[in-house]
Amino acid sequence: MFSKILIANRGEIAVRIIRACKEMGIASVAVYSEADRDCLHVALADECVCIGPASPKDSYLCQDRILSAALLTGAQAIHPGYGFLSENAEFAAACRKNGIAFIGPDAECMARLSDKTSTKEAFAKTALRPIPGAGVLSSAEQAAKEAESIGYPVMLKARSGGGGRGIRVIHSRGELLQAYPLAVAESEAAFGDGAVYLEKYVHPARHIEVQILADQFGNVVHLGERDCSIQRKNQKLLEESPAPCLEGRDDIRERMYEAARNLARAVGYEGAGTIEYLYADDGYFYFMEMNTRLQVEHPVTEMVTDVDLVKWQIRVAAGVKLDFTQEDVRLSGHAIECRINAEDP
Fold first, then answer.
1. Alpha-carbon distance values, 248 to 10, 29, 245, 251 (Å)
2. How many Cα atoms are found within 13 Å in the side-chain-facing hemisphere of 21?
């Protein structure tokens, strides 16, 4: 087991990881920007290192400064939390190159799953269907041709998108031709990758996600599902487990669970991950994507399963085998998480 972990994040998730470290007897290192000097995660950690000015690109997104902090303090592993570098395969590879464990899947697996089009290809092996669509597009004209084949409305999405960004709902050819160059530019600016692809816009539908946990020995368990359908601007506002829309539909639930476990096995996944689906009114569910990190809504699952996801992320990264099987997982009760957003209405 690791004796010291650096948390490459801030705020609530950094505090959550520090708590897990304390309970496991692991020393914690906090990093902080100059603007976060007085934040709670800095006060709670055993050690802290300033990594730059307030701008995230010069601090929490600066790989060299974070790696330098880990090497300086003797941290054996880095926990990325969520956001920032948590799904950055280049950073995961840099950790390994410097002899530091990255608490998450390996760089190759993460790179494959960050490409949403290749993830769909892996999911196809589970015998369940992804949302109808087209792969990476080369031009607006190709996009229009593919959209005619799929049928409007469609969604234009960034290949490297996340957090609800890089998504546009399109209802006509004219709208698509106009939106295509804007979507490419937006994707390039936000994710450093201008590639976009098309999906059928499935509506009405529920947003259901399945939490999985996998170790380095090929063991994969699911920890139930969460309903994340209530959103604003494609950002989740309310998450709950179990999903109310699946009450009395245990057959669909079990198919979702098994598909999630099969996908994790197909890509050799390790750690905590989330497989996201759209569940349509016709009873079918469609694969959307896999998130290769801890989710903001992870406490919802912890509440109903009594499984500490953060501690198991750390154990798996240290080479510990899961000490429970799928039959040992018991879902009890109901949990809801609400996100409070501050904005000018």
1. 40, 46, 9, 9
2. 28
pLDDT value, residue 22: 98
pLDDT digits (tens, 9 = 90+) for 87-140: 999 999 999 999 999 999 999 999 888 766 666 666 666 656 778 888 889 999
Q: What are the tokens at 220?
A: 């994969």
Q: Tell me, yes or no, if 19 is annotated catalytic.
A: no
Q: Which two tokens stand for residue 320?
A: 């510990």
- pLDDT value at residue 196: 92
List, in sequence order, every residue forming a beta bridge with 156; answer none if it has no partner.
168, 198
d(CA 198, CA 147) in angstroms, rounded, equals 7
What pTM does this model have?
0.88
Q: The tokens of 313 are what?
A: 């992320």
Q: Taking Cα atoms as reference points, which of 24, 7, 20, 11 lies closest to residue 296? A: 11
* Residue indicated by tokens 């750690």: 271
Mean of pLDDT over the chain: 92
Using the CB atoms, write b or e for 50-67: b if 16+ within 10 Å: bbbeeeeeebbbbeebbb
How many Cβ atoms sit within 10 Å of the Cβ of residue 10?
24
Catalytic residue among 165, 293, 315, 330: 293
Q: Residue 263: helix, strand or coil by DSSP?
A: helix
Q: What is the mean pLDDT of residues 229-234?
A: 88
β-pairing, 77-79 vs 101-102, is parallel
